[in-house]
From TrEMBL:
Binding site for substrate: W345, D346, K572, Q573
GO molecular function: carbohydrate binding; glycosyltransferase activity; hydrolase activity, hydrolyzing O-glycosyl compounds
Any single Pfam family the record assigns to this protein: Glyco_hydro_65m
Domain Glycoside hydrolase family 65 N-terminal: 16-255
TM region positions: none
Taxonomic path: Bacteria, Bacillati, Bacillota, Clostridia, Eubacteriales
Family to which the UniProt record says this protein belongs: Belongs to the glycosyl hydrolase 65 family.
Keywords from the UniProt entry: Glycosyltransferase, Hydrolase, Transferase
Glycoside hydrolase family 65 C-terminal domain sequence ranges: 672-711
Protein name in the entry: Glycoside hydrolase family 65 protein
Residue intervals of the Glycoside hydrolase family 65 central catalytic domain: 311-657
GO biological process: carbohydrate metabolic process
Active-site annotation: E472
Length: 716
C-alpha cells in the first residue's frame, strides 16, 4: 500500500486535522471506504471505551431538519447494500452489520484508546486514489514509546475482501497484544436487527455470522497473520527499532450473493491469500485507477475545488454498483444510518447524470433498479387506490413505500415522473432502443397512474392537486409547477417511446387521454409573469427570517415550528428553479434572472440538494462570483463537518453537475443531439478537463478561457 502518507498529494488526500473528539463521527462518515457491495465507516479498529456500539434506543420517524438525532461519540458502520432489517417505526432499513474491523490493542497490558492522554502524534488520511485509509499515532507507556501505523482498504478486485495491515515498533522491549474480532454487539439506529448471532472458529480462521430480521444471512470470516495459538490474537515482545507487521484479511458474504456463503470455503480462500497479502494491493489499485480514468474531472487553478470534487467523485465511485441493479445508492451513500438506506428521487435527478456521461453501465444499473421495482410501484398505486405504478418517495428493495412520514409519502408524488424522466435521459444518452423497450412497462404503468391521479376539469384544464413539490416546506399544494411540468414531460416521453419502440402497451384510447392530459396541464404565473411554485403561492405568508431565524448556522426548519414554516413562503430547496436547471431552453435569460431573484431570498437551503442548483443557474447566467460562492457552499456540505450521519451523496452528484453542466455549460442529451459546451469558467480556473461518454462514444473535453477542445479539436 503506497497511500498518501508516503506520497502526499493534498488534492487526493482527505486528511484529519489532528485528534478532535467532537469530530469523530464526522470523520467516520467522511472517510468511509467501500467497494460496491461492502462499505465501512472509518471507526478505529480498537474502538473507543467511551462509545459502546450496542446502545439501544428508539429512533423515531421525524423530519430530518427538525430531528435532533442522538449523537454517540462514535458510530462504527458496516453495510452491505441490500442486507436489510425491519424496524417497527422506520420500516425496511439497511442494517449495520457486525464490525469486521475490530482489533483491540494492548501495550504493557493496558488497552490503547485514542481518548487517553497516552496517545500522541495522531494522523489519519484517506487516499482517494486507491481508497486506502492510514492512521498513525504514538503511545506512551511507563517504559517508553510505542509507534503504531494501521492501514486498511476494501478490495475493489476481490469482492467482499477487507485488508488490514498493522505496523508496530517501540524504543524499548515493549509487550504488545492484539486481539481481533468480528464484533456482533452492534445496533442500527439503536435497534437490534439480529435474530441470531454466532461467533466461530474454522480451520485457522475466526468469524461471526448473523441473521437479520428481514431474512438475510451474513458470514464474516477473518485470518490474522502472524497469530499466536489462538487464531484471533498475536502477542509478543518487540525488538527496539524493529517494526513488527501484522496482517488481517476478512471476507464478508451474504445470502444475497449468487452462491450461499460457506465459511469453510471463505477460510480456505483467506488462507491462500494471506500467504502474500501485499500482492492484493496491485489489482485493487488498478481497479480504482480504471474508475478514475473514466470518471475524473481535472480543474487547474483551484486546488480547493479540485480536492472537494475528488471527494465527491470518490464517494460516487465507491457507492454505486454496476453489477447489482437490485439496489440503488441510498441517500447517505452507505456511509451512515440517516434516511435508513432508502432510495429517493436523488437517484434520477442527482446521481444519474454523472454515471450516464462517464460510466453508462453503472447508470443502467441505477435505472435498472427502477425497472426491477415496478411490481412494488404497482402495489403503491393500488394501496392509494390508483391503477398503474406509483414510485415511492422512499423506496425499499422491492419498490414499496418506506417513508414513515405521511407528508412526504402521500404527497411528494413527483418522484414517479422523475423515474420516467430518468428512463428518457438514459435512452437519449445511450440511444439504446433495447433498453427503452425494457423500460416500456414502467412508462406505460406510470402514465396510467397519472391519468387517474390528475384531475380533469370540465373546461379541459387538468390539475394535480394535493402535492408536495421538491420544496418540502410547502407541504400540501395544488398544481406545483415542478410536478406538473415533469408529469407533462414524462407523458410526452412515454408517447414518444411508444412510437420509437412500436410498443402497444398503451391503447390508442389511453394515448389519446395522455395527449388531452398534457394539453390541459397548466402552470401558473403571478401578475408579474413569474412562474408560481403552486397555484396560490402568492397567498402564502412572507417569512420573517430576521426575527425567526437569527442563527443562520442552524437550519431554518430546525428553528421554527413546522406549523409556522408550512404557512410561509420559506423554501427548503430549489423548486421552480429546478425547471430552468433541467430545461435551460424553457426560460430566457431575462425571465430566469427575474424568477431567480424572486425565489432566492425565500430559499433556506436546508436541504443539501439546494445550493448546487442555484450555483449551476448562476454559472449559466454568467454571474461567476456568485456561482462560485454557491458552488463552494455545496463543496463544503460534507467536507466541512456534515458527514456524521453519512455522505450527502445527491450533493456529490450535484458537484459533478456543477462543474460540467454549470461552469462548463454542457447540454444534456434529452435536449440536443450533439455534445456541446457553453462555458462560464470562474476567472481563476485555468482549465477544466474530463472524459465524457456521449451516445456510446468516449470523448475527452478540455475547456479553457480560450475555448472548448473536444478530442484535440478546437470547437467553433
Ligand atoms: C430533501 C429531499 C431529498 C432527501 C434525501 C431531503 O432533505 O428535501 O429532496 O430527496 O433529503 O436526500
Amino acid at each position: 500500500m503506497i497511500s498518501c502518507y508516503k506520497n502526499p498529494n493534498k488534492l487526493w488526500c482527505l486528511e484529519e486535522e489532528g485528534y478532535r473528539p467532537e469530530k469523530t463521527k464526522h470523520y467516520e462518515g467522511l472517510l468511509t471506504q467501500g467497494s460496491q457491495g461492502l462499505h465501512l465507516r472509518a471507526s478505529y479498529e480498537e474502538g473507543l471505551a467511551a462509545a459502546p456500539q450496542d446502545e439501544s434506543y428508539m429512533r423515531l420517524p421525524a423530519n430530518v431538519t427538525v430531528e435532533k438525532p442522538r449523537h454517540p461519540r462514535s458510530k462504527a458502520g458496516c453495510y452491505i447494500p441490500g442486507v436489510t432489517g425491519i424496524h417497527p417505526l422506520l420500516n425496511e432499513v439497511v442494517v449495520n452489520l457486525p464490525n469486521p474491523l475490530t482489533i483491540r490493542l494492548w501495550a504493557e497490558g493496558e488497552p490503547v484508546d485514542m481518548d487517553s492522554p497516552q496517545m500522541g502524534d495522531y494522523a489519519r488520511h484517506l487516499d482517494m486514489r486507491d481508497g486506502v485509509l492510514y492512521r498513525s499515532f504514538s503511545w506512551k507507556t511507563d517504559k517508553g514509546l510505542v509507534s503504531w501505523g494501521i492501514s486498511r482498504y476494501v478490495s475493489r478486485a476481490v469482492p467482499g475482501l477487507i485488508v488490514q495491515r498493522l505496523e508496530v515498533s517501540a524504543d524499548y522491549e515493549a509487550n504488545i497484544r492484539l486481539e481481533a474480532a468480528v464484533d456482533t454487539k452492534v445496533t442500527t439506529n439503536g435497534y437490534n436487527h439480529f435474530t441470531d448471532r454466532e461467533e466461530f472458529r474454522v480451520a485457522g480462521c475466526f468469524g461471526a455470522a448473523v441473521d437479520t430480521d428481514n431474512g438475510d444471512h451474513v458470514e464474516m470470516v477473518s485470518v490474522l497473520s502472524p497469530n499466536a495459538g489462538e487464531p484471533e490474537t498475536w502477542e509478543g515482545v518487540l525488538t527496539p527499532g524493529k517494526t513488527m507487521e501484522v496482517w488481517r484479511l476478512t471476507l464478508a458474504a451474504s445470502s444475497r450473493d449468487e452462491k450461499a456463503p460457506c465459511r469453510e470455503e471463505m477460510c480456505q480462500k483467506l488462507n491462500s491469500l494471506i500467504v502474500n497479502p501485499s500482492a492484493l494491493y496491485a489489482p485493487h489499485a488498478a481497479a480504482w485507477d480504471a474508475l478514475w480514468e473514466k470518471g475524473r474531472v481535472e480543474i487547474q487553478g483551484d486546488e480547493e475545488a479540485q480536492r472537494a470534487v475528488n471527494m465527491a467523485l470518490y464517494h460516487l465511485l465507491r457507492s454505486a454498483n454496476p453489477r447489482d441493479s437490485r439496489v440503488a445508492v441510498c441517500a447517505k451513500g452507505y456511509a451512515g444510518e440517516a434516511y435508513f438506506g432508502h432510495f429517493f428521487w436523488d437517484t434520477e435527478m442527482y446521481l444519474l447524470p454523472y454515471f450516464l456521461y462517464t460510466n453508462p453501465e453503472t447508470a443502467r444499473a441505477l435505472v435498472g433498479f427502477r425497472l426491477n421495482t415496478l411490481e412494488g410501484a404497482r402495489k403503491n398505486a393500488a394501496h392509494y387506490g390508483y391503477p398503474g405504478a406509483r414510485y415511492p418517495w422512499e423506496s425499499s428493495l422491492t419498490g414499496e413505500e418506506q417513508c414513515p412520514n405521511w407528508q412526504y409519502c402521500d404527497h411528494e408524488v413527483h418522484v414517479t415522473a422523475d423515474v420516467a424522466f430518468g428512463i428518457w435521459h438514459t435512452y437519449t444518452a445511450t440511444r439504446d432502443l433495447e433498453f427503452l423497450k425494457k423500460a416500456m412497462p414502467v412508462l406505460a404503468e406510470t402514465a396510467r397512474y397519472w391519468l387517474a391521479r390528475c384531475h380533469f376539469d370540465a373546461d379541459g384544464s387538468v390539475h394535480i392537486n394535493g402535492v408536495m413539490g421538491p420544496d418540502e416546506y410547502i407541504c400540501f399544494c395544488d398544481d406545483n409547477a415542478y410536478t406538473n411540468t415533469l408529469v407533462k414531460k414524462a407523458l410526452g416521453y412515454t408517447l414518444e417511446s411508444c412510437r420509437l419502440t412500436g410498443s402497444e402497451l398503451l391503447s390508442q384510447q389511453e394515448q389519446e387521454k395522455i395527449r388531452a392530459c398534457m394539453e390541459g396541464l397548466t402552470v401558473f404565473r403571478d401578475s408579474r409573469g413569474i412562474l408560481q411554485q403552486c397555484r396560490d403561492f402568492d397567498r402564502y405568508e412572507e417569512p420573517d427570517f430576521e426575527t425567526l431565524w437569527p442563527d443562520r448556522s442552524r437550519p431554518f426548519g430546525g428553528t421554527v415550528s413546522q406549523e409556522r414554516n408550512y404557512r410561509t413562503k420559506a423554501l427548503k430547496q430549489a423548486d421552480v428553479l429546478m425547471l430552468p436547471y433541467l430545461f435551460p431552453d424553457s426560460m430566457g435569460q431575462e425571465e430566469l434572472e427575474k424568477t431567480y431573484a424572486y425565489y432566492y431570498p425565500y430559499t433556506t437551503h436546508d436541504s443539501s440538494l439546494s445550493y448546487i442548483i442555484h450555483a449551476i443557474l448562476k454559472a449559466r447566467m454568467g454571474h461567476g462570483d456568485e456561482a462560485l460562492t454557491l458552488f463552494r457552499k455545496s463543496l463544503g456540505i460534507d467536507l466541512d463537518g456534515g458527514a456524521a450521519e453519512g455522505i450527502h451523496i445527491a450533493n456529490c452528484g450535484g458537484i459533478w453537475q456543477g462543474v460540467v453542466l454549470g461552469f462548463c455549460g454542457m447540454g444534456c442529451s434529452y435536449q440536443q443531439e450533439k455534445l456541446t459546451f457553453a462555458p462560464h469558467l470562474p476567472a481563476h480556473w485555468r482549465k477544466v478537463s474530463f472524459p465524457v461518454v456521449w451516445q456510446g462514444q468516449e470523448h475527452f473535453v478540455e475547456i479553457t478561457h480560450e475555448g472548448v477542445v473536444i478530442d484535440g479539436e478546437k470547437q467553433k
